[in-house]
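Input/output pair, single chain:
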Amino acid sequence: MTKAARLAACVLFAAACQPVPSTGPVPDEGRPAVPVTAAACKTAGGSWGRQGLLGTEQCVMPMPDAGKTCRDGDDCVGDCRGDPSSGGAAPGDRMTGRCQATTSPFGCYTRVEDGKAEGMLCVD
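Output:
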């Protein structure tokens, strides 16, 4: 690889790693808008703090259907998640779940789709 090609590859790689600028919260089909400042988060009833492995400060909002029994993500505003106390179901096992509690994507959980467990997912 030529020096110019290596430089171009490095520039493209660095550009791909840059954060995408936020233009503000964009709610998905009934999801609560997630404020981008601590004051707006508190006013909206959310919880502001460090989230994820990188400890990025962000707002976590409660989901309107938190805890509702579900058999599929279509039953919830967010994800249908398996009960962590169930001991971990294998992918494809029949199960019901509960609608996710908050907008936070972090933690370990099993998504439930079409009444069946998907693989365990851990988001840091």
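The CA atoms of residues 10 and 16 lie 10 Å apart. The helical segments are 3-16, 38-43.
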